[in-house]
Each structure stands twice: as structure tokens, then as C-alpha cells.
From TrEMBL, chains A, B, C, D:
Principal localisation: membrane
Transmembrane regions: 19-39, 59-78, 90-110, 130-151, 178-206
The protein's name: Uncharacterized membrane protein
Reactions mediated catalytically: K(+)(in) = K(+)(out)
Similarity comment: Belongs to the TMEM175 family.
One GO cellular component, as annotated: membrane
Gene Ontology terms, MF aspect: potassium channel activity; proton channel activity
A Pfam family per the record: TMEM175
UniProt organism field: Micromonospora rhizosphaerae
Keyword Signal: no
Keyword terms of this UniProt record: Ion channel, Ion transport, Membrane, Potassium, Potassium channel, Potassium transport, Transmembrane, Transmembrane helix, Transport
Compartment(s): Membrane
Amino acid sequence: MSAGPEEVQPRGPARLADIGRLAAFSDGVFAIVITLLVLDLRVPEYHQGELLTSLVREAPSYLAFVVSFIYIGVLWLNHHALLRLVRGTTLALSWINIGILFGVVIIPFPTAVLASALVDGDTDDLRVAVVMYALAAALMSAPWLVFFAYLRRHPALRAGHIDQGHVHAQEARPITGLVLYGLAGLLGWIVNPLLGLLGIIVMIIYHGVTSEGLRTGPLQWVRTGRRG
Amino acid sequence: MSAGPEEVQPRGPARLADIGRLAAFSDGVFAIVITLLVLDLRVPEYHQGELLTSLVREAPSYLAFVVSFIYIGVLWLNHHALLRLVRGTTLALSWINIGILFGVVIIPFPTAVLASALVDGDTDDLRVAVVMYALAAALMSAPWLVFFAYLRRHPALRAGHIDQGHVHAQEARPITGLVLYGLAGLLGWIVNPLLGLLGIIVMIIYHGVTSEGLRTGPLQWVRTGRRG
Amino acid sequence: MSAGPEEVQPRGPARLADIGRLAAFSDGVFAIVITLLVLDLRVPEYHQGELLTSLVREAPSYLAFVVSFIYIGVLWLNHHALLRLVRGTTLALSWINIGILFGVVIIPFPTAVLASALVDGDTDDLRVAVVMYALAAALMSAPWLVFFAYLRRHPALRAGHIDQGHVHAQEARPITGLVLYGLAGLLGWIVNPLLGLLGIIVMIIYHGVTSEGLRTGPLQWVRTGRRG
Amino acid sequence: MSAGPEEVQPRGPARLADIGRLAAFSDGVFAIVITLLVLDLRVPEYHQGELLTSLVREAPSYLAFVVSFIYIGVLWLNHHALLRLVRGTTLALSWINIGILFGVVIIPFPTAVLASALVDGDTDDLRVAVVMYALAAALMSAPWLVFFAYLRRHPALRAGHIDQGHVHAQEARPITGLVLYGLAGLLGWIVNPLLGLLGIIVMIIYHGVTSEGLRTGPLQWVRTGRRG
């Protein structure tokens, strides 16, 4: 308990434990949300001998399930890469993370609405459901933007091998999300709900492809480990 | 495996592993509870073409969802800070933690009652729901008080960088919760349920702001950096 | 990657990671089961202005919730102490653990049956529910017994500071559970369901008190750390 | 912070942390799915005094629950062994893992369909349910095959003590699953649904027995101890 190395070591792990519990909590939320989606795949009511017909009738709702499953997978990969940018957390960053999780947690609701509209609704209902899904996805981008902006302004939180330019460049992703999910919603509202849904799927693929971050310059941040 | 430093090290990690499983179990519970809330956001029954009207009709129940989501976020941040106070657990402390988790686990129930009363109930029902929520929140403060009191009486469990005065000062928080959530319930019962709900929201914000602990003296424990 | 210490270290952690994933998986199951219990606390259907009456009518079912919450808390503490006995896992031990988790996972079902019988059932229904709960609890003891017996026959799996006599002594606990939960069921069937329920509660308290293991001799196993 | 050993160490743990979050996320999903199964064991509606009769009537559906519980246990053990083959993850491997989890997450749906068909359906419904379960199980094998094939082509991802031949040999397992679950479905469709169900159960046992990997040569990778 003298000064020197002993003084330093217990603090380092304490820091890591912090981001560790935040990561564990977030992983728990992602794991639960991705699993809860299946709860909306309910056994349809059916008369004896008509199970197959009833299942086929529900089939369009499976599309909503698959889209949301992939969406949450994408979000988890993005979140995974997000936490690799920081080496500790503050109260503010924990709150921003709770904001991110809020967006994740609500996904099953627009998913269920979309599934219901695909099976039981008319075009008006489908329009409402697609716009609702797009709005939820657009708004979900906001706390990600706050995260990158906060990290840019607090360089002390950055993990050692991440440079400032990389963090700054990432802000383009949630802004793209905010704008294009919004446009997908508009498209679904004005033109055609299925076109809006297609727009949402394209955006999910975009976030899947860029989940490890937008490249900045000659790949300098991707190389794991520091340069020395 | 001689005596000396090697003898000390295995005890440290063994202790930490203990608190590790307690933290993991608690994080799991928090993650599940915060995610289960969305299960009460059900797709309303609707006639074709009336999805939007049905969703709008349910809108007040979303308020209950948002309040409880933030409440559990606040509780998780408080719990996160709580476990940083200790460096190991005992059977008694584990039981106190289970008491804390009991309070967390029941939140979805008063939330669902509140959501139902906001949509389908009259003023009497809303009064019952608000008082129930306030009572649950007030009683939930009790195990937190027991935790701080127990930790004060067992200084050997304190993490190295935490001083006695800090632990003692924290007892003010659950006492404030016990009294003021109770008062919010009374306010909701006697004066107006929405005023009681407002009192609950104010208290949740209070616990959010103080989640890292009440400051004691000139910030000596908050400094996260190393002194060196 | 020469021979010597580097050769030893990576294997040690690999072992620990094994029991680590088993513990994490188990903690996840415990956390989910203890939280899912609240899903059976549903908002009752009610006419406007009669929320309070409906909630009071459901009150007996809350007893089932509280008993099962404490029961799973007790089981988690027991499981926590169980995994501290071993320093690694084998395929057989993993399967025994899955057997233990099977017992944990089904608890919400007899709990829901008991809650339903307490509110809507007559004495016959309550008798069925109590016997079902007691049977589930009795059968749940079986894999714990297998765990202790297996560990006794495979001393290489024992954690360093645990002696053979301690493991052997613990077999008394699941045997007590098997017999006395069975007797509580018989009591509930023949004499009175509420008496059977009381017997179950007494047994849960017994497992709570002995969760860290039956003492063997002069406390030699409780001392954390090895003697040197 | 000089070059040399310090340069190496941060890379190891950073890699391990990666696979750590992937493992934690996967464990969370497995734990939730195995626990959610019990949600389909609902308290039957019953008239006072007829709880026992109603429970007995539902008994066949418990078979579906038990089979799926063991199935997910088997899948978790397989996944546990799978992640021990690698020492880090890439974006592609993370996506393959999400594909594996997709197969796990949908299990409760065919399980619920099967449980429903066992209680309420006729032979046609049971045939549909068994084929659906077999198809889900067969398709679930696909991402496992992709995992092994990817690992074979990216030897740098292999954990140090795993040799190329072992990884290659494991591809036989998902191929067996793909073919034989498919055959079990055909058997259930053409011959007899219960025979198909039996085929599924046999396959689950096969995957349980081989969960730690098919042996290649004189057990060189199974030896868990150190060489000395």
C-alpha cells in the first residue's frame, strides 16, 4: 500500500471493471431483446387439421422477425465496436449508453406492430407500421451521435490506439441513419409502405457493413495494437 | 507458492470473483427487467385501417414505460456505484443484494398497473396505481439503507479507496427515498394522482443525479485519476 | 512461445474460462428465471373504478411469487457456493449442471399453478398445486446429489482449498431436500395443502441457511485462501 | 510502454476480450432461450376442482418442452466447445455466430407449435409440427458448417492447441445434422410423425455425445492437462 506501482495497479482494473459492467449490462440487454422477438411468433389459433394453413397465413409476419433479428445483430456489432473506442466510462457516458439501449429495447414493439400490419392490416395500417419502424430507427441514431460527439470532446476517454480523426469520422454514421431512416419513413408514407420497408432494410445493411467504423485514411486504426 | 506476496494475491482475485458473480447476476436481472418492460407495450387490437387510432389511444401507457425505463437505468447506475464500495461479499451482503433485486424485479408490475390505469382507468384507478407505484418505490429503498448500514458496521468489506464517512453519508439517500416516495404516494392519494406521479418522477431524477454517491467534503473520493 | 512458464499460463486461464462460461450461463438462467416470475403478476381485468378491488382479489397469488423469488435466491446462493468447490468442468459436470438448471427453469410453472390455485381454485386444486410444487422441489434435489457424489469421486476437479470430507458432508443437503420436500408434499396431500406449503417454506429457509455448505469440523474449509 | 513484451501483451487480452463479449452475448442468448421455453408451459384454464384433469390433459406438451430444453443444452455445450477452437473473432466470424444464434433463438417457436399439435392437433397437424421442427434443426446446422469451413480457411484464428485436422474433421457434424434432421423430417412426413420425432431425439443425443468434437487420431487435442 505504498506509493508507486501498487498505487497505480488497483486503479487501472477498477476502470476496466467499470466498462466491463457496462458492457455486460449492454450485452444482456441485446441478448434479451434479440431473443424476445421470437415471443411474437405465436402459435396461431387453428381448427384441427388446419395448422399448416394457419402457419402459412402468418408467414408475412416472419419477415418482420427476420428483419429485426438482423437489425439487433447489426446494432450489437456496432455497439461492440463502439465500446472498443473507450477505455473507461463516466456518468455522462453511462447515460448516453442507456439512451442507446433505450433505442434497442423498443425494437420489439414496432416489430410486433409491423408483423401485425403485414398479416391483419390494410395498406393504411402497413403505412403506419412502416413509418413507426422508420421513426424508431431514425430516433435511435441520436444517442449514437451524442456518444461520438462526447468522445470527441473528451479525448481522455479514448482507448490508446484510437485517434481523434477516427472518432470524428464516425459521426457520419448516425447522421446518415437519422436522415436516411427518416427518408425511408417518408417514402413509406407518401409513395408505398413496402418501398419504405425496403429503404429500412437497405439502411440496416449499411450499418452492418460499417459496423466496425468508417475507414479514415490508410486504415490506420484498424490495425490492432499500438504502433510503438 | 511460497508465503509472502503470492499468498496475498490468490485471496484478492478469489474475493473479486465472488463479487464478480454477484455483479453478473445483478446485471442480468437489471438487463432483463429493463427489457421486459417493453412486453407490456402490446399491439392493440384494431379493425383494419384503424391501427393509428388504436396506437394513439394507448399513448398514455407509453409514459409509464418511459418512466420505468429511466427508473431502472437510474437504479442500475446506483447499483453499479454501490458495488464499487465493496471489495468482496458475505452471505449477509448477498442476501441484502437479493433484497435490492427484489425491489427491481417487481417494477414491471406497478408499471403495467399504471399503464393500464392511464389508458383504461378513471381517477380512482389512477390514484390506486400511483400510490402502488410510490409504495413500491418507497419500500425498495429499505434494502439499500440496510446495505449502507451493514457496510458501515463491517469496514473490512469496504474497497480500499472508500472512507468510512463516505459510506455513512450515503445512508441519507435511501432515507430520502423512503420518505419522499412515501410523500409522493400520499400526495397522489389525497391531492391528485398526476401530482403524485410528478413527485415520483422528481425523485427518480434525484436518484439519477446522486447515483455516484453524495459528495462528502472536498470531493476526495470522486477523483478517478491517480494521485501519483 | 518457448516451453516453461508460458506453456503453463495459457492453459490455466483456459480452464478458468471454462468454469467461467458455465457460471455465466448459469447466472444468466438464474437471473432470467427470478425475473420471469413477475410476468405472472398480471394486471387483472377490471371495470373502471374497481382496480383496487381486483388487485386485492389477486393478493394471495403474490404469496406464490414471493416464495418462489426467495427460493430462486436461495438456489442461486447454493449454486454460487457449489461452483466454488470446483476448479474446472468436464462434459459430465456440465451435464449435471444442466440438470440443476432444468430444476431451476421449471419453477415458474408450479409457481403459476400455485398462484392460480390460491386465487381461483378450491381445496382440491390447492392440494394439487402444493403437491406439484413439492414434487418439483424434491426432484430438483436429485442433480445436486449427483453433483456432490461426482465431485467426491473426481477429486482432481476440487478447488485447492476444499477437502474431501467437506464435499462428502454436503451430500446430506440434497438428500434432506429430496426426503423433506417429499414429506411436505405428502402432508399437503393427506392433511392440509396450507400445511404442505408451510413445509415447503421451512425447507427453503433450511437451504437458505445452509447455502454456503454444512460445516464439517472446526470450520476448516470456510477460511478463504490456502494455508501454505 | 517500450517495445518488446509489453507490445505483445496488450494484443492478447484485447483479442480475448473480443471473444469474451461474443461469448457473453451468446451465453445470454442461450440462457434466455432455455428459460423462455417454460413460458409456453401455461396454467391451463380450468373449472374449480378440475386443475389436475386439466394439467394431465396438457401433459403431452411437456414432452416438447423437455426435448427442446435438452436440445438447447446440447447446443450450448457444442457452442462452448466451438469457441474454444478460436482465439479471437473477426467481423465475418461474428456474423456466422449471429447466424448460429438465429437458429437457437427460433427453437421456442417450433417447440410451441409441436406442444400445441401434441395436445390439440390431429395427425395432420402433428405431421406439420414435426416436419417444421426437423426443418428448423436441419437448417440450424448450416451456420455451424460455415463456421468450421471459415476456421479451416483462416488458421490464424485457431486457438494455439487446436490443429488443422481437428477443425476439418468437425465439419462432419453439421453435415450429419443437415442430412439426418432432414431425413427425420421426411420420415415424419411420409411414414409417421412420432417416428420423425424419435429421429429428432436420436439426433439431439448424437450432438450431445459429440459436443466436445469428433475425436481425430489418438486424442491429441482432448488432453486437457499440461504436457510438462
